[in-house]
Write a structure and sequence with these properties.
Blueprint (H helix, E strand, L loop, with lengths): L1 H20 L2 E6 L5 H11 L3 E5 L2 H11 L17 E6 L3 H9 L3 E3 L11 E3 L2 E2 L6 H8 L4 E4 L2 E4 L3 E4 L7 H9 L5 E3 L2 E7 L2 E4 H4 L3 H21 L8 H18 L8 H18 L22 H29 L1
Antiparallel strand pairs: 1-3, 1-11, 2-3, 4-10, 5-9, 6-8, 7-8, 11-12
Helix pairs in contact: 1-3
Length: about 325
């Protein structure tokens, strides 16, 4: 009896030493993990995390004793439940949580376990030929039929809802269908570092969502700083661009000619002139004046025309005679 008591004291002393000497401590559940698999997980985590499995009562005693040297570490006693192990590490609690989560794998149900989430069988073909399997699946509540020489699941169905117990018949049917509803691995329930306790809900962050929120916050803060004209190494280039743009807009609106605005002002003037011209109606073309029609000359008779020609010839002869007389008088 004394040997048992001493062994427990030694175990508690060893646990206290681990709790005090390591910067990060986590309480981990190891329920349902076979011993060989735990050994494999320890091997995978070697150099990053050390794992010590012990009885919950001894762990609680060690936490209480360690709290005398590390304030707040006894807060971990709140998450000591089920089959428990203490994980010690030098990496921060969030990295530790991620390392422990990486050990988790899907596992078949044996019956009697609680469903971690809704267990659903989808409609479609199965690899089974008609036989006793049909009765086994129907016994588990799976709607099956035989089509084309194969066993077919007719409709999608929720076999077990989250939090409900998985029956042995359902467990056997799920295993036959290669549906493994359980997740086996090291389950961190809480962690401690530098006087702070981190619950699982805090540690289980969505990294992608966190990075998206961080990027959004950075963008919004930069926009606010530029809007307020707050100078910094990040905002000064943006503030200079903003100031230059606003100065150009002011110069253009006020029609101030400069080396940079003159070309733009000419383009602006051309555009305004073209816009104005498109709104002014075109003047109608003047129609040419119509000439008054001339009255057609009356055709003269041949006799009248002959007399006119003779008269013109007599006048020409007379003019020549007059010219000769004038020349002789001058002589």
């Amino acid at each position: 009896m004394r040997e048992v008591a001493q062994k427990k004291k030694d175990t508690v002393a060893s646990l206290v030493s681990a709790l005090v000497e390591n910067p990060v401590i986590a309480i981990t559940r190891v329920d349902g993990i076979p011993a060989p698999q735990i050994q494999m997980m320890r091997k995978k985590l070697r150099g990053k995390v050390d794992l010590v499995v012990s009885k919950n009562r001894l762990i609680n005693i060690a936490l209480k004793e360690a709290s005398a040297k590390r304030k707040g570490i006894d807060k971990l006693a709140e998450v000591v439940d089920g089959q428990t192990a203490i994980a010690t590490a030098s990496i921060n609690p969030f990295k530790l949580f991620k390392e422990m989560e990486s050990t988790k794998t899907s596992a078949p149900a044996k019956g009697g376990e609680m469903a971690p989430s809704d267990i659903i069988v989808k409609a479609g073909d199965t690899p089974f030929k008609p036989g006793p399997i049909v009765a086994d699946l129907q016994k588990a509540g799976i709607p099956v039929a035989i089509e084309g020489g194969k066993v077919v699941i007719k409709v999608e169905k929720v076999l077990v809802k989250e939090g409900e117990k998985i029956s042995k018949d359902v467990a056997n049917a799920l295993t036959r269908l290669e549906i493994f509803p359980l997740e086996v691995g090291l389950d961190v329930r809480g962690a401690y570092e530098d006087g702070l306790f981190y619950d699982r809900s805090v540690l289980a962050i969505d990294e992608e969502a966190y990075l998206t929120d961080l990027h959004k916050a950075a963008t919004q803060s930069l926009n606010l700083a530029v809007f307020m004209a707050y100078p910094s190494s990040k905002t000064i280039p943006l503030l200079l661009i903003k100031a230059n743009t606003e100065a150009m807009n002011l110069a253009m609106n006020a029609n101030i000619p400069t080396e940079k605005t003159i070309k733009l002002l000419i383009q602006k003037a051309n555009a305004q002139a073209a816009s104005l011209a498109s709104k002014v109606p075109e003047a109608p073309e003047e129609e040419p004046e119509e000439e008054e029609p001339k009255e057609p000359e009356e055709k003269k008779k041949p006799e009248e025309k002959k007399e006119e020609d003779q008269g013109e010839q007599k006048e020409e002869v007379k003019e020549k005679e007059n010219d000769k007389e004038a020349d002789s008088g001058d002589g």
